[in-house]
Amino acid sequence: MRVQLYMSEKTHDIGVNRELLAAITRQCQQRQDIILTDENPDIVHLFGSWEKSVSILANQLYKKTIPYVYSPLGGLLPWHTAHHAHKIGLSAQKKIAARASTIHARSPLERNFLMEGKWNKEVVVIKNSAITNEIQEKEMVDDIIKLYNEIIASYLFKTREDIREKVLNLEEEDENIRYVFEKILLAHHEMHRGNMSQESLNGLAQAMTAVDYDEDKMAALLHQHKLDKFLGRLEQVMMEKSTLTEGFTTLPPIQDKITEQMKESITHYQQPAITTD
Fold first, then answer.
1. How far, in Å, CA of 13 to CA of 19, rounded?
2. Which of 25, 101, 212, 231 is deepest in the core (most CB within 10 A)?
């Protein structure tokens, strides 16, 4: 699991916040199943309230459909909301909270205020070992990592179901076309996030090579869903980086600047699998 932790400098200047981030970092670095990185994360943990940099990153994650956990660190409690020297407006702060997969509260009191304020329906209490002896550092971080895993599993399930629903609603009845089109939708989703695994690229190339389908019907379906240019570029990528050959392309391959960007976004590390089979 690839995890990005983000805390603004101003939030980091507060000792208890700095200790929390250090504890999570320390425990994650000791685990083989966690990679801390800012590059192509599977999930992001945002810390702090009323910060422009947090708002900007949250908006970017929302557009790329990358899930994130949000720890306001007490900044959304009524006395802070009323008197804080805000760098962003209330509307922007509400978006950060509302779009989070889950808000992390440090106490039942904070959770109650977050629920009453309707910041987000999903609020989980995980106490901070830096300010209470009711929980040890390892237990705290284990609970946080468990939360990451639950969110990713839920995200993958929803993504898989959304893709399947689109395929089920197709007027096209040919099962082979539906099967390959589902693979194309998955590839489009991964590219939209900013990266695509080599495994997914190979899977699509194999499907387009091995499955017998009407290319004219597929081309019309792709045009209908505005995916024709996407596949044309991806075919060029598959011809260079995978096993697709010219005789098995559905559309004329496209080579342009966007194609080059797509080539660079192909990753070779293992990603959480969005299986559609």
1. 10
2. 231
